[in-house]
Amino acid sequence: MKNNKNQNIVIIGGSVAAVSAIDSIRSKNSSVPVTIITREKEVCYSRPLISYVDLKKEQFYYRDEKYFDKNKVDLIIDEVVSINENSVILRSGKKITYSKLILATGGVPVVPKIKGIDNKNVFTFTTYRDACEIKKFVKNKKTAVIIGAGMIGIKAAEYLAALGLEVTMVELMARPFAAVLDDKSGKIVADEIRKHIKLILKSGVVEIRENSCLLKGGKKIKSDIVVCAVGVVPNINLAVKSGIKTNRGVIVDSSMATSMKNVYAAGDCTESLDILLNENRPLPIWPIAHKHGSIAGLNALGINEKYEGGFVMNSVDIFGFPMITLGLSSITGDDSAVSYDERKNEYKKIIMQDGKIVGVILLGDISRAGIYTGIIKDRLDVSNLKDDLIKDNFGYIYVPKGNMSPEVMPIEI
Amino acid sequence: MACRLCEIACFVAHSKSKKIIKAYKEESGVGLPRLVIEQKGPLSFAIQCRNCKEAPCVSACITGAMKTDKSGRITHDDKKCVGCWMCVMVCPFGVILMDTSGKKVAAKCDLCSDRDMPACVEACPNEALVCKEDRHKRI
Fold it and tell me: Which residues of A touch B85 (CB under 8 A)?
């Protein structure tokens, strides 16, 4: 990999998929020119951390400011407006050539069609700039409405509550985190949320005004600020404009290559194999973006590495109450093991299909959750363990022997 | 045989005082033992960070606190950690623990970076715990 003549890799985007691509490229090749083009001035910060009001600067950045220098990466703060064969055109008019390109454009928040959605007091909450603008805007303001009770909604609620606002969350569905929780866990989480803010379920905002929101059914609630958090979709605008094949996300093969020659894509802008559904779909979570980035980086260097697929999972802290969901956690079927400790407010549900775990919900006690993640990833048959799975002392010792790391195999005495 | 001597040694080694009585009396609940002892019928073992080659915890870490250093160890920076528990969610061995005694942070085996030999290995009366380098077999 010493001959870098005429080789240069350009990466569009500046979050985890891009950083992971750089890390993997530099682990194999220290000299190939790498350029990163990103719209945001704050590069390499961690987007999930924008809700932490008091975070120190060094905590907030995923990689320190010397990262690009250390890795010999050229940084361009600009926006790519089109991708051509072997070059990209920037907003400033500049043309940057590439031999390999990696798209890591991430996701964009969904903005629903609601009367007044373009008002000055309406924000989304996915970037550092969003967080800054909100902080500035809420000075001397008292009330906030958050539309949507999912991951982003809950983080926005914590942020605004920490800034001293009275927060009301409005959710269309009958439970928060509707995509990943079942009825029972939804109720537990709703009760937890209600200890800290107001939560209105099965309702929607139909009109946003300067100091209030009008709900379905005519109810009016005070809101000096509205944060729209109904979801995020892959940011495929640039790919579509440039003729790269897309579906809900940018379509890639197992080497993260797109339909355009020499162009790869990674992270939240793509769709990739969900091993539990056996179909391609957006899997917009941090660890998968990291894996994608690394694989795209290696393939851009000519090293053949394949993405074997993944599944969605999330770890969320709801005002201090921990929740982890894995896989297809909201599906309802007969084959599941459930335990609920009312006194400790701990809920555990393992959903099985054909002897294999396909979904997990853990509330309150999330310790050692990764053992389930490993079992799902390895598609292990655990039909004979069904009752053990929800035991308090469930652990690695229950993992079928053939799948254990040889170093930690227990010895019978 | 689940004597739990490794657990005690680990707890003391990660305490402020490094003294067994003081550590248990005054620091109980603070720096947790960084290993887990599992038991199922006649089986038992102690399990701690395997320092995976492609470590899921490093991939999942949203702050950059969890890193692979040059020697292949997985290191964790308490100052960067915000306690999001992404690492807890992905560690297939279930050996990343949650320290909630102060600022919420992940806690894991650091191979006793300030000692020649990890305290748990030294303490094991049965020589069941060994410390060796074998990075290829690890997942």
Answer: 315, 317, 322, 324, 366, 369
CATH of the domain at B58: 3.30.70.20
Residue B79 belongs to what domain range?
A: 51-108
Count of the separate structural domains present in chain B: 2
Q: Note whether A220 and A133 are within 8 A (CB).
A: no
Quick check: B61 and B124 in contact, CB under 8 A? no
ipTM: 0.93
Q: How many angstroms separate the CA atoms of B35 and B108, rounded?
A: 7
Query: Which of the listed CATH numbers 3.30.1490.480, 3.30.450.20, 3.40.30.10, 3.30.390.30 matches domain A320-408?
Result: 3.30.390.30
Give a yes or no: residue B128 inside a domain: yes
Asked whether A379 and B27 are in contact (CB, 8 A), the reply is no
Residue in this structure with the two tokens 């054909």, named with its chain if needed: A354
- Digit-by-digit pLDDT tens for chain A (413 residues) are 445 677 999 999 999 999 999 999 999 999 999 999 999 988 889 999 999 988 877 788 999 889 999 999 999 999 999 999 999 999 999 999 999 999 999 999 999 999 999 999 999 999 999 999 999 999 999 999 999 999 999 999 999 999 999 999 999 999 999 999 999 999 999 999 999 999 999 999 999 999 999 999 899 999 999 999 999 999 999 999 999 999 999 999 999 999 999 999 999 999 999 999 999 999 999 999 999 999 999 999 999 999 999 999 999 999 999 999 999 999 987 799 999 999 999 999 999 999 999 999 999 999 999 999 999 999 999 998 888 999 988 999 888 877 787 666 655 54
B64 shares contact with chain A (CB less than 8 Å): yes
Most A CBs within 10 A among B84, B97, B124, hence the mutation to make, goes to B84
CATH class, domain A9-108+233-300, is: alpha beta
Secondary structure letter of residue A310 according to DSSP? B
Nearest by CB: B84 against A315, A369, A370 = A315
- Are residues B77 and B55 part of one domain? yes
CB contacts < 8 A (A, B) = 131
Same domain, residue pair B56 and B101: yes
Tokens of A227: 């944060």
Please state which architecture CATH assigns to domain A122-228. 3-Layer(bba) Sandwich (3.50)
Residue extent(s) of CATH 3.50.50.60 domains in chain A: 9-108+233-300, 122-228
Residues B55, B44: one domain? no
Q: Which one-letter amino acid corresponds to residue A378?
A: D
Q: How far from chain centre, in Å, is Cα A189?
A: 20
Let me know whether B40 and B71 are in one domain.
no
Closest CA to A79 of A13, A171, A158: A13
8 Å CB contact between A21 and A273? no
Pull the structure tokens for residue A197. Answer: 């803010």
Same domain, B27 and B16: yes
- Cα B130 from Cα A11, distance rounded (Å): 44
- The model carries a pTM of 0.94
- Which residues from chain A sit within 8 angstroms of residue B90, using beta carbons? 287, 313, 370, 373
